[in-house]
Amino acid sequence: MVFIVTGATGAIGSSAVEQLRALGHTVIGTSRRAEHEGFRPLDISSPQSIEAFVQSLEDDHIRIDGLLNNAGTMLRQYETTPEGFERTLATNYLGTYHLTRRLLPLMNPGAHVVCTISLSCYVARLDRNLFQPDPAHYSQVKTYANSKMAVMLFAEELHRRHGDHLTVHVSDPGIVNSRMIHLDRWFDSLADLIFRPFCKSPKQGAKPAINALLHPANEGNSLLLFRGDRHRAIPHRWEQPEMAKWLWDETSKRLQL
């Protein structure tokens, strides 16, 4: 089978690529840095980069059996993309939405789409001001949490709209020993000493996503949450069909898709 893994040079992404290839699958890994040999260039925060990546797949007549939306970031400072979007949201959510939508015509029937979420969804507070953040009150963790909750709602709406021919799941890697948990704060060195030894390895962090990609279509093709070696139904508090529909439509307008 042919899988795409975004953010494939990061800790979790590179482990996912390695494990999937070891199982005999063809994996197209992406990297924001073009100098990474063996990976296709893709800056998930850039609409132009996404379009160029999709065009390269079309030119090579590639059909897809699975997409792992793994790429993500958590920026300390408020930044915007050239399109005017806050960069953490643009990377974690808008890029996931844009890429998945554009790849739908290239997906084989029954293809799996796996979106990476986070424990931070439990503290997310999404509202309809998501696209108008206040730079003066920017919060690194809150912005990250809201971007991951937006990904969760995107997966819900993708399942509602395309679940008849796609298998959609979400995966939570847990707290992984990677660059992602480095917050660029004064206490990072102390946290590294005390906290990192108890974090999951990249291989453990990638396992839920791999399980989701390879999970056979279940009865009713339910949207499932994969965490550790287990899976379960989506927590009821995360099911927000009205907000998910608004978010899908509003994002489509803003990205002009």
Task: List the keywords.
257 residues, alpha/beta, Rossmann fold, eight-stranded mixed beta sheet, 7 helices, 8 strands, 39% helix, 16% strand
What can you see in these coordinates?
By secondary structure, the protein is an alpha/beta fold. It has a single domain (2-255), classed as Rossmann fold. The protein has helices at residues 11-22, 47-59, 87-103, 140-162, 188-194, 202-214, 241-255; strands spanning 2-5, 26-31, 40-41, 64-69, 107-116, 167-172, 224-227, 230-233. Strands 3-2-1-4-5-6-7-8 form an 8-stranded mixed sheet, with helices on both faces. Helix 3 (87-103) links the parallel strand 4 and strand 5. Helix 2 packs parallel to helix 3, helix 3 packs parallel to helix 4 (140-162) and helix 4 crosses helix 7. It is globular, with a radius of gyration of 17 Å. The mean pLDDT is 90.
Determine and state the CATH class: Alpha Beta
User: Structural class, judged by helices and strands?
Assistant: alpha/beta
Find the count of extended strands (DSSP E, 2+ residues): 8
Name of the CATH superfamily = NAD(P)-binding Rossmann-like Domain
- Number of structural units classed as domains: 1
The helix/strand order is EHEEHEHEHEHHEEH
Share of helix among residues? 25-40%
What is the mean pLDDT? 90
Shape-level CATH architecture: 3-Layer(aba) Sandwich
Strand content: 15-25%
What is the fold named in CATH at topology level?
Rossmann fold
Radius of gyration: 17 Å
Give the end-to-end Cα distance, rounded to a whole number of Å.
Answer: 28 Å
